[in-house]
Amino acid sequence: MSYTDKLMKLRSQKFIHLTTKGRKTGRPHSVELWFAASDGKVFLSHEGKETDWMKNIKQKGEVSFEIGGEKFTGKAHHIEEHTQEAWQCKVALYEKYYGKATKEVIEDWFSLSKLIAIETT
After folding, report:
1. Closest CA to 53 of 91, 24, 92, 87
2. Tell me, what CATH number does 78's domain have?
3. DSSP states along the chain
4. In principle, which of 32, 45, 68, 94 could form an S-S bond with 113, CB 3.0–4.6 Å?
5. What is the pLDDT along the chain (121 residues), one digit of tens a residue?
């Protein structure tokens, strides 16, 4: 089974355990987050001040993560606003945790959020 197939099978899980490499220490930095998976990508978001895991991704995008006991590696990047990828991320996350909504509701919900995508390697 391919990484994408495994990922799609696990997309109903509630949490992802994401590990980045510390940009200052080089040590693993792990967090538990909500996530969504769509078209072979994992999407994450965070509202507010940029966190250490987000800063680590900016410096070095290689990550590892676990969903439902399955381990993956990937390359993460910050998503540019007003792109198709940003919209895909917002819809996937919103619909997974809250259900269908209008574009206006989804855009408002993510108005202060930073978006991240991970592609499996």
Report:
1. 24
2. 2.30.110.10
3. --HHHHHHHTTT-SEEEEEEE-TTT--EEEEEEE-EEETTEEEEEEESSPPHHHHHHHH--EEEEEETTEEEEEEEEEPPTTSHHHHHHHHHHHHHHH----HHHHHHHTTTEEEEEEEE-
4. 45
5. 787 888 889 999 999 999 999 999 999 999 999 999 998 999 999 999 999 999 999 999 999 999 999 999 999 999 999 999 999 999 999 999 999 999 999 999 999 999 999 999 8
Please give the residue range of the domain that contains residue 97: 3-120
Q: How many domains does the chain have?
A: 1
Task: Provide the b/e sequence for 6-39 (b: ≥16 CB within 10 Å).
Answer: bbeebeeeeebbbbbbeeeeeeebebebebbbbe
The dihedral built from the CA positions of residue 7, 93, 56 and 15, taken in this order, carries a sign that is negative
Dihedral sign for Cα 99, 100, 101, 106, please. positive
